[in-house]
Amino acid sequence: MFRKSCHRLTVVGERKIALDGQTVSYTIKRSPRAKNIRLEVKRGTGLTVVLPKSYDVERLPDLLEASCGWILGKLAKYREAELLPAGENLKSGDAIPYLGRELELVVRQNSSRADSLKLEWDGLVVSLGSASRGLNVVLEQWYRIQAAKLMRKKADELTARLGLSYKRLTIRGQRTRWGSCSHKGNLSFNWKLMMAPEPVIDYVIIHEIIHLKEMNHTKRFWKLVTENCPRWREHRKWLKEHETELATRLSPIK
User: Which of 99, 136, 134, 100 is nearest to 250 (CA)?
Assistant: First the structure.
């Protein structure tokens, strides 16, 4: 979800297996650094099995059958996510996530050309003007503005405390990539993180800022992450479990 390893995975092939009466296709990859088998289920690519270089592929069916419940559960979540309403289908009275809580959406029309939004404790009032480009566009722009303010504030505070610095911070809208740190010291974060609980946002920001010092995922890197975010495993797990929901709650700006 964050920076990818510079050690490339090798695609071994694609296979199918029957799990609890369902035919599941999966891709097999090998990693030169993996010590254990890793199962991944992602939107668009389905199930991928990452193997250590010496693992016998013929042993895979038994492992996949043992993980049947987890695999089918993940695949079902992605299928259900396709049915979630996109931003263009949102209407007054619907709930939208913001910093881990649900806001009631109140949509009104106004006589001016400009849109306006007002955040209340338990709701977001959106007033659409005559020149509005649509509710989903207005909402995404609002989320992006809130993300830029909050994430820049948090990044500035953390880098100052750690004695680090970054060059530029941008807000993007990738489907499931939550943050990145370039070799030039540029940070980027996904505006959809504003739908997640704030401690999860803190973890992503800490993760990427530590990359300013350790451009890798070594034990040294994770030690620094743990020092600044002791519950990072819990927050990373939350992101993995909710990534499809966050990616599909609002339609992207075209």
Answer: 136
Tell me the domain boundaries of the chain.
10-81, 88-248
Helix, strand, coil shares of the chain, percent, nearest 5, are 40, 25, 35
Neighbours of 70 (CB within 10 A): 12
- How many Å apart are CA 223 and CA 206, to the nearest integer? 12
pLDDT-derived band at 224 (thresholds 50, 70, 90) equals: very high
AA letter at 169: L
Q: Is 115 in a helix, a strand, or coil?
A: coil
Residue 88 — very low, low, confident or very high, per pLDDT cuts 50/70/90?
A: very low
* Domain with residues 88-248, CATH architecture: 2-Layer Sandwich (3.30)
pLDDT digits (tens, 9 = 90+) for 151-193: 999 999 999 999 999 999 999 987 668 999 999 999 999 999 9
E-only strand ranges, 161-244: 168-172, 179-181, 186-190
What stretches of 129-212 show up as alpha helix (H) in DSSP?
135-162, 198-210
What are the Cα distances from residue 129, in Å, to 46, 86, 188, 197? 41, 21, 31, 31
Q: Rounded to whole angstroms, how far apart are CA atoms 156 and 80?
A: 38
Residues 6+ apart with CB under 8 A from 66: none
- The confidence score (pLDDT) of residue 81 equals 55
